[in-house]
Fold this protein.
Amino acid sequence: MSTLPAVDGRMARGAARQASVVIGIGAAVALAAGGAMVLRAEAKTNKVALASSAKQATFVRAKATTFRESRSYVGTLHSWVEANVGPQFISAYVDTVLVRPGAQVKRGEVLATLDCRNASTVRTAITMQARALEAKQGAFADEARRTQKLLDGGFASANEVEQALAQSASELAQLEAQRATMAHSSLEVDDCVLRAPFDGEVGDRFIDPGAFARPGTAIVSVLDRSTARFAADVPEVDFGVVAPKAAVRIHVDATGLDIDGAVARRAPHADQDTRTVHFEVDIPNPKRDIPVDTTGEARIPFGDDKPATVLPLYAATVRGVRATVFVIDQGRARARTLAVLGEVGDYLFLEPTLEAGAAVVTEGRALLNDGDRVEGREETTTTSDGGKAKVAR
């Protein structure tokens, strides 16, 4: 019975040693894992300052070209001639309208008619009155001639002759007045049939049959666009730019056409209110494929070609007539401010102090400061505009 306590004591001491070993092993594993994590974190930490590392960017090479100034003006394309057709002397109901927009018409072709029964009746009455006056005046003229013969034979007095002549002249005056009234009535009757004033096309139809038309009311419009007129107004300082015969290229917004032409005419004075000068360009349009009363843009080059450096527009920050670019020089970004000569499309023309072949930063320049280290990658660009640009105003 005395051996049982000794056995229990040995078993308790063994269990305690096993627990100590397990705890020690666990602590060692935890320390090893923590150390590994620390080493991993340290390995991923960048020990190099961001300011001293190279920044990524793309660049293009500046190209040498020539530049010629030009001006662009927005204007309107008009028909060569246009007329609103309607009554000018008479008021009446519209009887028929024979055409619709787009119809081709010839000069003298009937476009519309008015209900002019009243005017026709009045014209007939005036015509009959004129015939009666003509017959009456003829009788008085014959009587005056007979009285004149009687005066020569001594069978009539001078007073009778004078009265006969006066009566004949009075009737003649009334006849002429009636003829004038008849002519006016004829104009009114003729005004009831509305005809095309020239060859062209119907532009608008303003009134349908049954409407009441008064003098000056337009029923249809007719236009001739065999020749289109581009018209625009320019600032007075550009008076010399729009000189007659100056070469011009017109872009028609409605069709996308680009048409070459020349300034046909220029106003000799500026508008007193707007201080602008009017000019026009005649554009042949035999196929009538240019719609009128639409927008066009005229570009007129002027001056001489001069050397320039061309870049994509997105490679620079433009402020007025100055542009700022970043040039990569020996792995560093160098900010340069240059004079802007002009721009056309997506390209910017700068003074040639920026040498051809210089690496100009495009993407990534917003993150650059002067003197930053740069690791660049070149992108390719082409320009086919021939150096023709408008001045940035």
In short: The two ends are 117 Å apart (CA to CA). Residues 383-393 have pLDDT under 50 and may be disordered. DSSP finds three helices and 21 strands in the chain.
